[in-house]
Write a structure and sequence with these properties.
Layout (H helix, E strand, L loop, with lengths): L4 H19 L3 H12 L1 H4 L15 H4 L12 H6 L19 H12 L29 H12 L10 H13 L5 H8 L5 H13 L2 H14 L17 H12 L4 H10 L8 H6 L16 H21 L18 H10 L18 E4 L5 H23 L3 H10 L3 H5 L3 H4 L8 H14 L2 H22 L2 E4 L10 E4 L7 E5 L18 H8 L7 H14 L20 H13 L4 H10 L1 H4 L6 H6 L12 E2 L2 H12 L19 H5 L30 H5 L18 H9 L1 H17 L4 H13 L5 H20 L1 H8 L12 H15 L6 E2 L1
Antiparallel strand pairs: 1-2, 3-4, 5-6
Helix pairs in contact: 2-6, 8-9, 8-10, 10-26, 11-12, 13-23, 15-16, 17-22, 21-22, 24-25, 24-26, 29-33, 32-33, 33-34, 33-37, 35-36, 35-37, 36-37
Length: 830
């Protein structure tokens, strides 16, 4: 009887769970992490690093040191518990050891039969029903998984956050911007039941164009997006139309499977649209080396490696780069697997040293996304007229007419020709000049061609104007004849070994026979319902976006060295549901934020903090420092300075003088913008790789030199100094003070209430009101005594200083605003 791979995998899962349940020990949960961390480096998948010809990642080969059912006879157990430093494993030189608890787990596992299980992430997500949990706390099925775990551990979830906290949380999480006072007041005072009122807020946020901008920021991290090439003099490039495509794709809720397909292989779709070709810029965002002395062949390999490893990280959640030089030491990724995936991206007609704004072929001139529909409409007019004019040029009698005109050119006629023809003597014209003369004759001299040109010229002009507003971007395109791909010895470009073809790893579901063996086939393989990784990796990153930490804490590593999921059944349920509901991103986000799990208060009791310091059980709401872009954008928003125009070329806000000159070869001068460019969202800030935006760097934004899907969070004195003294934040404080004085009620207590509502989405508590009033009074007195200091403070930044407000009063309110903008609560997701 034939059993296909799906049936076999299901049987393995069922048998594995039956064994784990009966023995109360799980190989994946309890044993594999020990072996992977302590043993696989020397006794794992990498044959070249393997010691003593012993392989512990494959049961059949490990049996000679396991002795299933007889732990007292197990050589493995004897060696990991040996007291002799010459015998103990792992060797002392590795600085690793098996703890007594780990040794006991190994003993229990061997006594129970030493059964192995396939790694959890390489098995298809299980079709799991949400557990039946009896609790009023449960809002949706997500909560059932969380509540079941908490009840099993004798814990209770935290109460729901209050309405003010909740609207600020969900607005920041979904849009990256704070709610307005009107939105806060409407929600807090909404007489409808909480669930109903909250759902209206969520639906409004999901329909907001701010959603796409916020989601795009995180996708740009994964796609290693930048506005420069990244090496030597770090020349600027023009990939921003691709950035705008990402924003638009999220806002129109492009299904996630199509989102993947278009970025990996939009150019290979039947009759690809211009949008779909723009989408392929995803795989051209890597750095480019354009130094004069480089070897193009070497750097072409580097670019293909980058695309290969980015694809594996973003969609598979695997550390694929470890297998470039040798078989992976922990995961079953061989060098052959690496270069078979590499082959999908090796078929690009690129050179190794182009410039990302001009010569890094293949490239495409595209309009701004906001102009795309207008451009396509113009193209519909242009193309038939262009064909008509080409038909004139291709007619049999055209060339004789052209040659006759050419031979009769006199000095007066030459003066009417384009400049490039006038500057070169007629007898020295080459093919390029002859073709230019032929085009001139066709458009402006030949009667038939000129008749078409009169209709075509205005259409061409509109097309060119729209393209001038756009940019030349790098895109993907296939060679007609695929390049040969070889396994590279130690990953070196000039040491080719065995030739390999495009293919996927044998330990994952196979590609369907009717799928093309190119990037389109690869994309279809990634989004196939049978694929065990793509949907898990995707929902995990969306969970991380909303909860601060993914169900799998290591979003870049779903392999053997990554952390197992905190709630594996919930992860599988979400992954299956995501596919079943058409890869609906907005639907997934709504389900997550509507859960009681998401809406819990982040206040933590000492007992819960001790039992679950990292909140992996999700018995409370997440609390963490806001991302860098959100901290800056929030300050601009509450101050009223934020300019919410979407898309277009990058902008250059404030930056310390001389920074580019000190670091970048050629000493380019940073000429910051004037006007609205200073106040656009951080998404649109110019991202020069050699000198990242300093505010973003200090606040832990990802660097984007390579693909990054995890998040960094630190708390340093430099960050505090930035928020207190940087011109952008001081100016935001002054604008916030101005806004409070102009929009707020007439008295100090009411104005302080309004300021807190703007910044914190809540009124101040009594003690906070008292402290802020005292600070305001002290600041008034100080600035009245020292007007020069008041003038210096309120003059910070380019935005207009109000003339209808006393300078000392504005300075005092600016100081209060600085306090509010620097509160822990302000820069923290509560």
């Amino acid at each position: 009887m034939h059993i296909d791979w799906r049936t076999a995998m299901i049987l393995v899962v069922l048998l594995g769970h039956a064994r784990a349940g009966s023995a109360e020990i799980s190989f994946n949960r309890d044993i594999r992490p020990i072996l992977s961390d302590k043993c696989f480096a020397c006794h794992g998948p990498d044959a070249r690093a393997r010691e003593a010809e012993l392989r512990l990642d494959v049961r059949e080969e490990a049996l000679r040191v396991l002795s299933p059912g007889r732990p007292e006879e197990s050589e493995l157990l004897a060696r990991v518990t040996a007291g002799d430093p010459d015998l103990v494993m792992p060797p002392r030189k590795t600085h690793k050891r098996i703890t007594p608890r780990e040794a006991e787990r190994l003993r229990e596992w061997i006594a129970a039969g030493a059964e192995y299980e396939p790694h959890w992430s390489f098995l298809p997500p299980r079709d799991i029903a949400p557990p039946p949990v009896d609790s009023e706390w449960v809002t949706n099925d997500i909560d059932r998984f969380i509540m079941q775990r908490l009840q099993r551990l004798g814990l209770q979830p935290s109460p729901l956050a209050d309405r003010s906290t909740l609207i600020r949380r969900v607005t920041l999480d979904l849009t990256g911007l704070p709610p307005s006072p009107a939105e806060v007041t409407a929600f807090v005072n909404d007489p409808a039941p909480l669930d109903e009122a909250y759902e209206r807020v969520v639906d409004r946020l999901l329909a907001s164009p701010r959603l796409g901008e916020h989601l795009a920021w995180h996708w740009l991290d994964a796609a290693r997006y930048g506005d420069s090439d990244g090496y030597e003099s770090d020349p600027l490039r023009t990939m921003w139309p691709w950035r705008d495509w990402v924003v638009e794709a999220f806002n129109r809720n492009l299904p996630y499977d199509q989102f993947i397909i278009e970025q990996l292989a939009g150019d290979l779709l039947p009759q690809p649209t211009l949008r779909q070709r723009i989408a392929t810029g995803f795989n051209r965002n890597h750095r480019l080396n354009n130094e004069g002395g480089i070897l193009p062949e070497e750097w072409l390999v580097e670019y293909v490696c980058d695309r290969t490893e980015t694809t594996a990280t973003v969609f598979l959640g695997l550390t694929w780069g470890c297998a470039r030089c040798h078989d992976h030491k922990y995961d079953p990724i061989t060098q052959r697997d690496y270069y078979r995936l590499f082959a999908f991206f090796h078929n690009l007609p690129e050179i190794g040293n182009g410039f990302g704004a001009s010569t890094a072929v293949p490239m495409l001139d595209v309009p701004r996304l906001e102009d795309l529909d207008a451009f396509l409409a113009v193209q519909q007019e242009y193309e038939p007229l262009d064909r008509e004019q080409r038909a004139v040029a291709e007619a049999e009698d055209f060339e004789p007419r052209f040659q006759q005109w050419l031979s009769g050119l006199d000095a007066a006629a030459l003066e009417s020709l384009p400049k490039e023809l006038r500057e070169t003597p007629r007898d020295k014209w080459k093919d390029k000049q002859l073709q230019a003369a032929r085009e001139h004759y066709l458009r402006h001299v030949d009667p038939a061609g000129r008749a078409v040109e009169e209709r075509l010229a205005p259409v061409r002009k509109r097309s060119e104007e729209l393209l001038r507003r756009g940019a030349k971007i790098m895109v993907m395109e296939e060679l007609s004849q695929p390049r040969p791909t070889h396994i590279l010895h130690r990953g070196a470009y000039d040491q080719p070994g065995e030739e390999v073809s495009m293919g996927t790893p044998p330990w994952l579901p196979p590609m369907q026979p009717d799928w093309p063996r190119n990037r389109l086939g690869l994309a279809l393989w990634l989004v196939s319902p049978e694929h065990p990784l793509t949907s898990r990796v995707a929902v995990n990153r969306f969970w991380q976006l909303l909860f601060g930490t993914g169900l799998v804490k290591t979003p870049e590593d779903f392999g053997l060295q990554g952390e197992p999921p905190s709630h594996p059944e919930l992860l599988d349920w979400l992954a299956r549901r995501f596919i079943a509901r058409g890869w609906d991103v907005k639907g997934l986000l709504k389900e997550l934020v509507m859960s009681s799990t998401y809406r819990q208060s982040s206040v933590v009791s000492p007992e819960l903090l001790e039992r679950d310091p990292a909140n992996r059980l999700l018995a409370r709401g997440a609390r963490y420092r806001l991302p860098a872009a959100v901290i800056r954008d929030q300050a601009l928003a509450v101050s009223g300075l934020l300019v919410e125009r979407m898309g277009g070329p990058p902008v250059k806000p404030y930056q310390p003088d001389g920074l580019w000159q000190d670091i970048i070869k050629g000493r380019p001068v940073y000429q910051r913008d004037k006007g609205e460019g200073l106040y656009r969202r951080s998404l649109y800030t110019l991202w020069r790789r050699a000198v990242k935006p300093p505010e973003m760097t200090l606040l832990d934004a990802n660097e984007r030199d390579v693909c990054t899907v995890s998040l960094r969070r630190t708390n340093t004195p430099l960050q505090a100094l930035l928020l207190l003294n940087d011109v952008a934040f001081v100016e935001a404080a002054r604008a916030l003070g101005t806004r409070v004085l102009r929009e707020g009620p007439p008295t100090d207590p009411e104005r302080i209430d309004y300021a807190c509502l703007l910044v914190l989405a809540r009124p101040p508590r009594a003690e906070e009101q008292s402290l802020l009033r005292a600070e305001l009074a002290a600041a008034r007195e100080a600035y009245q005594a020292r007007p020069a200091e008041a003038q210096a403070l309120v003059s910070t930044g380019d935005s207009t200083v109000p003339q209808d407000v006393p300078m000392e009063e504005l300075a005092a309110y600016t100081l209060v605003a600085r306090i509010l903008l620097n509160l822990d609560e302000t820069i923290t997701r509560q």
